[in-house]
Amino acid sequence: MKERRVKRIGFACIALLLTLVLAAPAAALEFGARAYWWFPNFSADLRADLSGIAGTTTDMKEVLGVGNQSYPSVEAYFWAGRHHLSAQYTPVNYSGTTTLVQPVTFRGVTYNPGAYVETDLKLRMIDVEYQFDLLNLENVLAGFSLGPILKVKYLDGEARLNAPTVLAGDQKETFGVPVPMVGLGAHVGLLANILEARARVTGIAYSGSWFLEGLADVSWTPFPFLDIHGGYKIMKLKVDRSELYLNSQFAGPYVAVTVGF
Which of 81, 100, 149, 189 could make an SS bond with 183 (beta carbons 3.0 to 4.6 A apart)? Predict the structure, then answer.
C-alpha cells in the first residue's frame, strides 16, 4: 500500500510539473541537451530476503567483488523565463565476480565459502525536474538565481547473484518506483556569459527509505551554444522494502557538454 501511494504521488508530481511549464510565458525561451560522464566511487550493502528466510547484509565491494564503474547520463531541458524543466536518463550497471570467503544468503539461497559468484546491480533512473527561480538578480556578479525544485525520480532496479555450482544459484530481485523529491537550485554568473557556476540538491525520506542527490559544477562557454562543464556529484540511495535492503552511495567528479539554443 505504501509503495502504491508513493507511485500515485510521483505521477501527480509529473502532471504538476508539466502543467507549470506549459503555463509559463513564452518570453526568454531556451532549450538544449546535455551529456554527462560520471566517475563515482561506489559503495553498497545489499540484502534480499524470501518467504521469511532472512538474507545476509553483504558489502558488495568487499565480499562480492563489485568494483567502481563510470557511466553516462543524457538530459534535455527547456527554460521559459523563471521556469526550468528538464528530463534526464541514467543507466547504472555494476558487476563483479569473486570466490566467496564467507557464506551469503540471497533470496533464500545460501552461497557457501568457495562458491564462485557473479553479481550484477542495475539501476535505470529517469528524472523529471522543475525549478522556479524565486530570486533572479541580474546585477549580482554576472547574474544570480535561486529557487525551489520539484523532482520525480523513477527508479527501476535489479540485483542478481549467480553461482553455476549452487542449486538454484541464479537469483535476482527487482524493484521499480517513482519517487517525488524536493530541493533547491542556484546559478551564479561569474564572467558575463563565459563562466558560470551552479549547484543543486534534492532529496526525500519515506517508510525507511531515502534518496539524496546533489551536484555542483563550473561551466565554460568557449563558443555560442556550447558549454563545457566540470563538477562533482553525490547520490545516496537507501531502499528498505519487505524483502530488499540496499544502502548505497555514489560520489565523484563528472564532465559534461551542453548544446543550447
Answer: 149
